Amino acid sequence: MMTRVGFFWVLIAGLTTFGLGAEESQRIELFDRNPDHFSEQWRERGFPLIAPTQYRIQPGKSGSVVRGRSDGGNRALFRESTVEKPTVARLSWRWRVTQGLKGEVSERTRAGDDFAARVFVVFETSIVPTRTRAINYVWAAKEAKASVFPSLYTNQVAHIVLRSGAAGDAERAWFAEERDVLADYESFFGEPAAVISAVAIMVDADNTAQVAEAEFTGLFWEISSAGGISNP
Asked: How far apart are alpha carbons 125 and 115 in whole angstroms?
């Protein structure tokens, strides 16, 4: 089985940077309401030998809703959104878990390294996978809310637990999140972010061999840059 280090390499492979100019602060809706545009902007990336998470897009009351269902699988939906020298980067979204993991094994172990829902941001990329920096905002089954810990596979990836609840605990309610991504980055890595490369969502259950299902909607950037923004 490909390692999670390898998975992050799969995710970042092919990221490109375009000629950029200075940009004013702007609010960007990342889930396009047109299904055809959505499929052009968001691409699936994962392991060829692991069952893929199944995603589908459906209309919601305030925009597109993306539903992901993993039956022992693993795959992310990934959107490039390169921001050079970011000065403001607030990410907001709503999500809910409709089928959670059992929470029998700690997410800090290889056997438990799954999350029913995650939204993550990729920063500085590298041809060396373990040097690519990312922050995962996760919905855990066992780890407590507000826990912050590095990935098992590289200390260049942070897990920040925003919600926690095992299968049967949740009421399937929607929760709204808003994160100052630059503040989270500096708190974990101890220095300012130089670039934001991509945003992704994922539902994964391959290590626990369970079933997880989650929905995401209302994903927005409020963002500005001293260097410019490409592919907003």
From this structure: 23
